[in-house]
Design brief:
With 234 residues, the protein is an alpha/beta fold. The protein has two domains: 138 residues, 3-Layer(aba) Sandwich (Rossmann fold); 88 residues, Orthogonal Bundle (DNA polymerase, domain 1), CATH 1.10.150. It has a six-stranded parallel beta sheet with strand order 5-4-1-6-7-8, with helices on both faces. Strands 2-3 form a two-stranded antiparallel sheet. Helix 1 crosses helix 2, helix 1 packs across helix 4 and helix 3 crosses helix 4. InterPro entries: HAD-like_hydrolase_domain, HAD-like_sf, HAD-SF_hydro_IA, HAD-SF_hydro_IA_REG-2-like_cap, HAD_sf. Pfam families: Hydrolase.
Amino acid sequence: MRYKAVFFDAGNTLLRPYPSVEQVCRDVFTRAGHDIEFDAIKKAVHTGDRYYEMRYRKDDSFWLSEVEAASMWVDTYTLVAREVGINGDGKRLAREIYDEFGLHHRWQLFPEVCSALKALHDLGLRIGIVSNWDSRLSELCAGIGITGYLDFILSSAVVGRMKPQPDIFHMALERVGVSPEETIHVGDHYYADVLGSRSVGITPVLVDRVGTAATFDCITIDNIGALLDVIEKA
C-alpha cells in the first residue's frame, strides 16, 4: 500500500456545528430574552461568514494565537448580533456563542466519519488532525468519540503554526515518522488544505460535499468514506 498516513482537517471535514451555527446563535439570543426569527439569524450568519473570509484573506495570523482566534470569533458573532438588531449586549452574547462552540455537544460528526476512521485504522494507517483551531479541539474530539482513532491532534493556536504554512505539516509528519510521499491530507479548504499540504509533497484531497470544486486541480471526494477508494487505487 502506497500510503501509510492520513491527516485530516477538522471543521467541515470531520465535524460540523450542531444543529447549526444559526441555531446555536438563536439559542444564546433566546436565553438572553431576544426572540429573533431563524431566517433573520441565517441572513446575519451569512454576513458573518463573509466577514470571516475577509479577515482570513487579509491576515490569517489570528490562527496562531488562542487570544487572537477567540477575538476574531467574538468580533464575527458581535456582527451577527448587530445584524439582527442586538447592540447593547451583543459582545457579551458573542462571547457566549464562542463558548458554546467549546462544548462537544455543539458539534456532530458527518455520518460516514466513524466508519471511515475505523476502516483506515484497521488498515494500519496512522491518522492525525492538522487544523487551524484553538486549544479546545482535543477535548472536542474526545467528547465526540474519535480520539481512539487518532495518533495526534495539531491545533494551530497550540503549536504556533498554521495551515497553509509548511511547518505544521512537517510537524505532523514527524509525529508519525512518515514521508510526504506516503501521506494524504484531507480538508475542505483549497488554500489552507490543498496548497498547504502540496507545498511539502503530501497528496492533497479536497472534500467537496456540495459539488462546487469541479475545476480544482486535485483529487476531490464528496464524503470521507470515498477516501478508501482513493487509497486502494493508489
